[in-house]
Amino acid sequence: MPGPLPDGEPVPADGALPDHARAGVGHLGFGVYLHVPFCASRCGYCDFNTYTPGELGAAGGRSEYVSAVLSELGLAAKVLAESPPPRVDTVFVGGGTPTLLPPDELARIVAAIDDTWGLATDAEVTTEANPESVDPASLRRLRRAGFNRISLGMQSTAAHVLAVLDRRHRPGRATAAVAEAHEAGFGHVNLDLIYGTPGERPEDFADSLAAAVAAGVDHLSAYSLIVEAGTALATRVRRGELPAPDDDVAADRYLAAEAALTGAGFGWYEVSNWARTPAGRCRHNQLYWSGGDWWGLGPGAHSHVGGVRWWNVKHPARYSGRLAAGESPGHGREVLSLAERQTERVMLGLRLADGVPLAELPAAGRAEATAAVAEGLLEPAPHRAGRAVLTLPGRLLADGVTRRLLG
């Protein structure tokens, strides 16, 4: 089950933001995230804010969901009404399994976002999907609704790995869904992989990489399995039914991914993400990493505008109830100080292939950067040009390098 939210400070009932937050909205880009919390079943490793039909009752909460999201969108329009009108550069629908909602309902929400703020003419509009939750007909309907990018949860091509992860699709379904997405007119398709699952062999991951590349996608994400507290997987590991993921194995898998993807013409642009060309990069995630603004719609969704971050209540019924009462669904928020925003810029920027300017580091961090170059953790040429950029060994130790550079 999803874990508890942090408390933060109270969100005003009308969702109002400080004047300084609204003043520069969209200066670094503006996006909309939509959280769809419904899943047919819960994967054993997942701690996302998701709910199965058995947890929500016969109606499953879906009948109220779209209306509530449209109400929150109306609230958002009021909150930002006196701000410079943002142009929506990206829309990202995540979950959960967004494609459990009918394409026409997702289309209603995208159209409402366009009516509220206006989609940029080149807006990136993405939906996540489980491979078994789409078919050629639904993909065509999504494409007609304005979606131009899709992210499919492949995870692995090995049946025994999918079984440990409690994934429901058969091993070949993800690559078949890629072909169907291309046929439907999607120009940008991502596959998500997970590595380091207990029982996964090196050849299993190599086969998954090869299948993903052969599918013809222009983007791949690869994440090390993390055993999150409260999940079914954590229970199995605690009982000794499965071994805990091994850090050395995860490092080997990452190096295998880098070698295979670079050899296939992909380039890394964020520690866990590779694209065939700059046009294939996920612009919505780049907005997160570069400190842009976004409004998060839906239960448990997080938002950020002008250094104010807030998060919605998690349960769909409570979310809908708040909005039906004319109140913000925000559970809590934090107003970041200038120093906190600077720290975030370094933490997120260092994960990118462009790195961060050395000038943004504290004096002690600049000295650590010089030492990290000597240790092979930062690239020497960008360092001479005034930037800190991780090397491949540095990417394996990204969190530790970041702590050092922040002093």
From TrEMBL:
<dbReference type="Pfam" id="PF04055">
    <property type="entry name" value="Radical_SAM"/>
</dbReference>
<dbReference type="GO" id="GO:0004109">
    <property type="term" value="F:coproporphyrinogen oxidase activity"/>
</dbReference>
<dbReference type="InterPro" id="IPR034505">
    <property type="entry name" value="Coproporphyrinogen-III_oxidase"/>
</dbReference>
<keyword id="KW-0143">Chaperone</keyword>
<keyword id="KW-0963">Cytoplasm</keyword>
<comment type="function">
    <text>Probably acts as a heme chaperone, transferring heme to an unknown acceptor. Binds one molecule of heme per monomer, possibly covalently. Binds 1 [4Fe-4S] cluster. The cluster is coordinated with 3 cysteines and an exchangeable S-adenosyl-L-methionine.</text>
</comment>
<keyword id="KW-0411">Iron-sulfur</keyword>
<dbReference type="GO" id="GO:0046872">
    <property type="term" value="F:metal ion binding"/>
</dbReference>
<dbReference type="InterPro" id="IPR004559">
    <property type="entry name" value="HemW-like"/>
</dbReference>
<keyword id="KW-0949">S-adenosyl-L-methionine</keyword>
<feature type="domain" description="Radical SAM core">
    <location>
        <begin position="24"/>
        <end position="264"/>
    </location>
</feature>
<dbReference type="InterPro" id="IPR013785">
    <property type="entry name" value="Aldolase_TIM"/>
</dbReference>
<keyword id="KW-0408">Iron</keyword>
<dbReference type="GO" id="GO:0051539">
    <property type="term" value="F:4 iron, 4 sulfur cluster binding"/>
</dbReference>
<dbReference type="InterPro" id="IPR007197">
    <property type="entry name" value="rSAM"/>
</dbReference>
<dbReference type="GO" id="GO:0006779">
    <property type="term" value="P:porphyrin-containing compound biosynthetic process"/>
</dbReference>
<keyword id="KW-0349">Heme</keyword>
<dbReference type="InterPro" id="IPR058240">
    <property type="entry name" value="rSAM_sf"/>
</dbReference>
<dbReference type="InterPro" id="IPR006638">
    <property type="entry name" value="Elp3/MiaA/NifB-like_rSAM"/>
</dbReference>
<dbReference type="GO" id="GO:0005737">
    <property type="term" value="C:cytoplasm"/>
</dbReference>
<keyword id="KW-0004">4Fe-4S</keyword>
<comment type="similarity">
    <text>Belongs to the anaerobic coproporphyrinogen-III oxidase family. HemW subfamily.</text>
</comment>
<keyword id="KW-0479">Metal-binding</keyword>
<protein>
    <recommendedName>
        <fullName>Heme chaperone HemW</fullName>
    </recommendedName>
</protein>
